[in-house]
Design a protein that fits this description.
Blueprint: H1 18-30, H2 35-44, H3 55-78, H4 85-103, H5 107-118, H6 122-128, H7 133-138, H8 145-149, E1 150-155, E2 160-165, H9 179-193, H10 199-217, H11 239-251, H12 269-280, H13 282-313, H14 321-327, H15 332-339, H16 344-366, H17 372-384, E3 386-389, H18 403-422, H19 428-443, E4 448-450, E5 455-458, H20 469-475, H21 477-494, H22 497-501, H23 519-541, H24 543-546, H25 551-570, H26 584-587, H27 611-615, H28 621-625
Parallel strand pairs: 3-5
Antiparallel strand pairs: 1-2, 4-5
Length: 626
């Protein structure tokens, strides 16, 4: 992006309208500011003016966001594109953020600007999903997990939202709430929102009240463990702080009469206060409830899931897609088109897919639960699956004169699918299909098998490839195995559920916890399990990777992979047994004996040895925490 030390930016403008963009880039370099970090802080925290807003996220999330954006811009600027629409969009956003920070605009003015830019309307919000509003306001993709766990439908003509069990949950981590408890919260919230008279007022209250809740939770980064919303308590955050904060929020509501004002005296009475408010101040109660629920989800997802995975695999995320698409509706199609991978990354994807197909085919051939005709049929189906990539062809021929063509291409093949999934459906079956499309193409990321395309969709929805194939495959064996498991799982999605279900060599098939689940959830879980097993066996067969690891590293890798596998298995929502405990790995009691591949790593005894010694070969809580 130029040499900051010299204060120079190489001008590559060749069009009349590029002069202003070039000037902005020069100013950006001369100011020697960090636009990515300032932009992240603005979107995620500085609406309320709190400098330590979401401070627990700064170290990890900001650094990965910065790295991804900078790498993306540098790649574009060094491959002959020049400061085109993408650069213009980025610079405009960055300069706007710098302006906000410099002028210290009021909370109300910033809120109005953001709401207007995002074009948020309460009826549209009702039609899509309650959780869908929050990523647009605080820009945390982690909140999308709520949509995967629970599905919301609109009940015409009463305009009431109805919450149901999510049938689109795909490889999601467990929710810390039981369905009936979360339903009670959401039911109260939905009743309130369905009668809310002022959309803008409600959304403005959301931002204001979020600051008050933040005051009660800002010490969360120091807590090793958080608890469920039903307990409303954090380790290191005393009860009195919760009570004081909630009372302050209630007292700030000047339109409440003394008859409706509820004074919270202890933790247990907070929920009762919300219930009382729902009967008297319907336009604001939903705000309180959703903030509390989603703030816990943020902490859970960050501390227990993403921090571990991101640290191990160096995956990079940019979580500003939705904001950019709303701020730049005319140019966003081209923004995605140019950001789509067009170099050797495509070859890496195809090579990895072929490896996944090869190892899955071998796994199916070894299965004693499938007859020969079935094996031949499903293996042929696997061979036919390819990669579907959305991008103009050829990319190098795209110029400013062809913006309309490029926009149409991307909008028709990618963005319209996402928008279509968010539109209200005319019947229940169509609605379910739309929710599945939305969950798979928008929130799931780069890997999604889509039957209508007959292949695994690889699309850049967050400005950079997720994960970065070139780096993870070449440098990180652990990352290679995890990415391979993602491909294997999408291949299994393409096959009939019976193929996943009927497998006598898959571990945990006889797990007693599976007996109480319906067929759909059982297949979802076993796909995750089988994908992990196939990926691990694929790693063991790649001799060249073994040569790069020292003898002691084998055991270290095996243990790491088994722990990651255990956490993935035990954190699946269908296995959620203790909703009041967050740390999934403390709960995971899967025996190492279920997977003989890991016996050596844990010094497991041979089968003929004593029964007492075999009982010691299990993954205890202490081992998982180590």
């Amino acid at each position: 992006m130029g040499d900051r030390k010299s204060g120079e930016y190489p001008s590559t403008c060749r069009t009349e309208g590029c002069a202003l963009i070039d000037s902005e880039m020069k100013l950006l370099v001369r100011l020697d500011l960090d636009p990515c970090q300032d932009y992240y802080h603005y979107v995620c925290g500085r609406w309320t003016g709190a400098k330590d807003r979401y401070s627990s996220f700064v170290n990890d999330q900001t650094s990965s966001t910065k790295a991804a954006v900078v790498a993306h811009l540098k790649r574009l600027l060094t491959t002959g594109h020049g400061p085109d629409v993408i650069t213009a969009s980025m610079v405009s956003v960055y300069n706007s953020c710098a302006e906000h920070l410099a002028t210290r605009k009021s909370l109300e003015s910033i809120t109005d600007e953001v709401l207007n830019a995002l074009d948020i309307r309460l009826p549209l919000w009702r039609v899509t999903t309650v959780a869908g509003l929050f990523p647009r306001l605080v820009e945390f993709s982690l909140l999308y997990k709520l949509h995967s766990v629970f599905s919301l439908s609109l009940d015409y003509p009463s305009w009431l939202l109805r919450l149901g069990t999510g049938k689109v949950g795909r490889n999601i981590s467990a929710t810390v709430y039981t369905l009936d408890k979360l339903y009670a919260y959401f039911e109260t919230m939905v009743r309130a929102l369905s009668k809310a008279p002022a959309a803008q007022g409600l959304l403005r209250e959301l931002v204001k009240l979020d600051e008050s809740i933040h005051e009660a939770t800002k010490f969360a980064e120091k807590a090793e463990t958080t608890l469920a919303v039903s307990q409303l308590k954090l380790r290191g955050v005393p009860d009195v702080l919760w009570v004081t904060s909630v009372n302050r929020v209630f007292l700030q509501r000047s339109d409440m009469s003394s008859a409706t004002l509820v004074v919270v005296k202890d933790i247990k009475s907070i929920r009762n206060a919300f219930v009382a408010l729902s009967e008297s101040v319907v336009e604001v109660v939903g705000t309180y409830l959703v903030i509390l629920v989603t703030s816990e989800v943020i902490r859970y997802e960050y501390y227990e899931r993403y921090a571990e995975v991101q640290q191990r695999t160096e995956w990079m995320f940019v979580v500003c897609t939705e904001l950019l698409s709303s701020l730049f509706p005319k140019h966003y199609a081209m923004l995605e088109a140019k950001a789509l991978p067009r170099d050797s990354l495509r070859d890496s994807r195809r090579r990895l897919l072929e490896e996944a197909k090869k190892h899955l085919t071998a796994y199916l051939n070894d299965s004693r639960a499938l007859d020969i005709p079935t094996k031949e049929r499903v293996i042929e189906q696997v061979r036919q699956i390819g990669i579907v990539s959305f991008q103009p062809d050829p990319v190098q021929d795209v110029s400013e004169d062809h913006f309309n063509v490029s926009d149409s291409y991307i909008v028709n093949l990618f963005i319209s699918k996402r928008n279509e999934a968010m539109e209200p459906a005319t019947n229940e079956s169509l609605r379910r299909r739309h929710w599945r499309s939305l969950a798979r193409m928008q929130w799931r990321g780069s890997f999604s098998y889509v039957s209508s395309f007959g292949g695994i969709v690889v699309a850049c929805q967050n400005l950079v490839p997720i994960p970065l194939f070139a780096s993870t495959i070449s440098r990180d064996v652990f990352g290679y195995t995890l990415v391979l498991s993602r491909f294997v799982r999408e291949l299994l999605v393409a096959l009939p559920p019976a193929v996943t279900n009927a497998d006598d060599v898959c571990p945990f098939v006889g797990d007693s916890r599976l007996a109480t689940f319906d067929e759909h959830l059982r297949v979802e879980l076993l796909r995750d399990v089988k994908a992990a097993v196939v990926a691990y066996r694929a790693y063991r067969k790649r001799k060249k990777y073994w040569d790069r690891v020292a003898a002691g590293g084998h055991v270290s890798f095996d243990r790491n992979f088994f722990q990651a596998f255990c956490v993935q298995f035990c954190s699946h929502p269908v296995l959620e047994q203790k909703p009041f405990t967050l740390r999934m790995r403390d709960r995971c009691q899967v025996s190492v004996r279920s997977l003989p591949e890991f016996w050596k790593a844990y010094d497991c005894p041979d089968a003929e040895r004593s029964r007492w010694a075999s009982r010691q070969c299990s993954l205890t809580n202490r081992t998982l925490r180590s």
